[in-house]
Amino acid sequence: QSITGTGIYSITGTGVDSITGTGSNSITGTGAESITGTGSRSITGTGINSITGTGAQSITGTGIYSITGTGVDSITGTGSNSITGTGADSITGTGSRSITGTGIHSITGTGAQSITGTGADLLVLGPVEHVADGFISVLGQTVFGVGGQNVGDVVAVFGSIDHETGGIVNARVVPARSELSYLRGIVDAVDRSTGRAVVSGVTVDYTALLANGRMPAIGDEVAVSGRAYSGLGLLVAQ
């Protein structure tokens, strides 16, 4: 237990528990648990569990679980599950399912489905095209029992379809922000020669989806997101 000797508990010795020695538990040594060493659990070392090292679970390293690294599960990295990264599941990234991203399923993003659920089906999202007493029209769909919207407002419409009138009833209309439009409905007609279909009265150009082998059939219930051209009565699917 000498101060400057070689005992196992010496302060500047070579013992396993020495403060500045090379033992496995030394403070500035190279042991596995040293504070500034290279061991697997060292604080500033290169071990897999080191705090500022390069190990797989290091806090500021490049490992897959590092906090500020580039791994797939890193907190501020670029991996697919990173919290502030650009991966598909990142929380504030640009991935397709990111929470505040721009993907089509993002919650506060600009995608076609960027609205949280309300217990009812999202049937249509887009700008209001027509306003009348007791109903509005959005992407060619008549929405009954609503008011307070103006032409040009972008809204998301939740509700159910009245199969006798084809209109949307029990509707809940909420403001939305999206460059794309969304429509859920039944395929009424298909023209395979032009790559177009009619969904709930709206002509849909689905040629961009053919590379994936997606081809609708009459009677299918489909959900389409894309860019709407109201003047042409056309929705170009993306």
Provide a descriptive summary of the structure in words.
With 238 residues, the chain is mainly beta. Helix content is 0%, strand content 29%. The protein contains no helices and ten strands. The chain has strands at residues 121-132, 135-138, 141-144, 154-161, 168-175, 181-191, 196-199, 202-205, 221-229, 234-237. It has a five-stranded mixed beta barrel. A hairpin with a 4-residue loop joins strand 6 (181-191) and strand 7 (196-199). It is elongated, with a radius of gyration of 30 Å. The chain starts with 120 loop residues before the first strand and ends with a strand.
Helix content: under 10%
Task: List the strand order in the largest sheet.
Answer: 6-7-8-10-9
Distance between the termini: 74 Å
- Global Rg: 30 Å
Shape: elongated
Average of pLDDT: 73
Low-pLDDT stretches: 96-118
Question: Brief description of this entry?
Answer:
The protein has 238 residues and is mainly β. The protein contains no helices and 10 strands. A 5-stranded mixed β-barrel has the order 6-7-8-10-9.
Give the topology.
Blueprint: E1 121-132, E2 135-138, E3 141-144, E4 154-161, E5 168-175, E6 181-191, E7 196-199, E8 202-205, E9 221-229, E10 234-237
Parallel strand pairs: 8-10
Antiparallel strand pairs: 1-2, 1-4, 1-6, 2-3, 4-5, 6-7, 6-9, 7-8, 9-10
